[in-house]
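Q: Focus on the shape:
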Amino acid sequence: MKEEPLKHIKTINREGFQEDLISWFEKEQRDLPWRKDQDPYKVWVSEIMLQQTRVDTVIPYFNRFIEKFPTIEALASAPEDDVLKAWEGLGYYSRVRNLQTAAKEVHEKYEGIVPDSPKEISSLKGVGPYTAGAILSIAYGKPEPAVDGNVMRVFSRILSIWLDIAKPSSRKVFEEAVRNLISHENPSYFNQALMELGALICTPTSPSCLLCPVREHCQAFEEGVQTELPIKSKKKAARKLNMAAAVLLTEDDRVVIHKRPGEGLLANLWEFPNFEVGTSSSGRKQLLEHIEEEYRAPCSLKTGVVTRIQHIFTHIVWDIEVYVGSIDSASLVDGDLVAVTKEEMEQYAFPVSHQKIWKEAGEGIL
């Protein structure tokens, strides 16, 4: 007979668990800018930024973003290039494009007020079950689960749940667990406390069980298996792509860049001309051929690789050889390639890999 994954939920002291967890959070919570108030817009922005990004990295981005776009209306009406520039360096740019699309809908359909019903908020672009639950519980005080990797790790240990948290089907079990145990009096602090506990105490490796405020409620600690949980299958190895990129200068020392397509990876960001190249022949030669073929813009490249950049995405690794060279501005006629001054470069949003290219290969040649 298959074991019930939530069998231990029947024996846990719900009120004691809630009280111990929330009391700890009230004393120990970090001073984070999005906790200054319960503005749904700020909670929303912070939760989108925090996806796959560390808190320390997010804080300065959050402060600058809210200063630049203090309201939903400000974000909804901003040019996309300005929004991408404010996000530059955070990565996973589809997050902010979806955020702006959803902000426009909230502005037009809900008079600028983030909806407080699960159905309406979940219909917004980029708002999945976790983000919806976080906004509804933290900003609106609704007892909705907000289950991410942190929460699944905590509950896998508290309730000794031996399910693979990498499988989408497991999320429903953990959402059910949170619904069973969430405080209806203070769901905001309950969910934030779970997130904080996962970040500070119940960490992926070497959890600090002796400092844990809910240790006496933890089944894994009682059984001595806290380091064996959660169960998480490994991701597939990322696919490697060999790339070559060119930092090209015109005769009047302007830098040549182009805009990526509006769909797909790093959509609408700016970058230096670059292409995938094979390993069987010179990357420099292939790059020259690609630029000629793609842009009808002959250029010259200096011999030798100036620098090598590696950038890791979730499923892809870019290994980029970087060259420098020159190009005749008269050949930039179709608009795909744009020549800008060094000062104007500051106005354009570049992915991290191309920021590195500019820093290591571009700035020194002007």
Remarks:
- The two ends are 71 Å apart (CA to CA).
